[in-house]
Amino acid sequence: MRKLHQQAFGEHGEVVSDLVDGLRALVGAGHGVSLVVEEAGDIVGHVMLIDALLDAPRRLVTVRVLSPLAVLPSRQGQGIGRALVTAGLQHESTRGVPVVFLEGDPGYYSRLGFEPGASHSFCKPSLRIPDAAFQAVLLPSYQPWMTSTLVYPDVFWRHDAVGLRDPGT
Fold first, then answer.
1. 37 domain residue, yes or no
2. Res 164 pLDDT > 70
3. What range defines the domain where residue 154 resides?
4. What is the pairing mode between strands 148-151 and 122-123?
């Protein structure tokens, strides 16, 4: 799994691989899900959806963060990432999760139903996250009062994996 993330994320591969190692504990405790695509015994794609909190005016709301999504570079552009995201969103919808957030390329994720988080009055958890990268998809159990700031689980902060830093600076 580390090799997949290192290849898929290039210069950020080590940070993302370490994050995945940390996220596994949350998945194991029932606070997330990990989905893979395997071919001939090799993992060619992987996505995780992890519990986070939305600090809404009425109460804290458990939501999910889609992070990371990785596909082997040699297999990108073949629908593997789309299949993983679609399966993940379907899974979360059946569980009653109201919103799934992510940090990512709006050109890619907008094709999968994600919209800028700010367009629904969501606030990003860090100023390091570019506005366009902070995205959300509303699922059927979403209610309009569910707004405000997304709070990432501690593991994202411990691995410095929020708004990935530019290694060139």
1. yes
2. no
3. 2-158
4. parallel
Q: Exposed (0-12), middle (13-18) or buried (19+): which is 113, by Cβ within 10 Å?
A: middle
Q: Which pLDDT value is given to residue 160? A: 86
Percent of the chain whose pLDDT exceeds 70: 96
Prediction pTM value: 0.94
Q: What is the CA radius of gyration of the chain?
A: 15
Whether the predicted pLDDT of 165 surpasses 90:
no
Indicate whether 165 belongs to any domain: no
88 vs 115: CA distance, rounded Å: 17
Percent of residues in the chain assigned helix, strand, coil, to nearest 5: 40, 30, 30
At 109, which CATH number? 3.40.630.30
The Cα 105–Cα 98 span in angstroms is 22
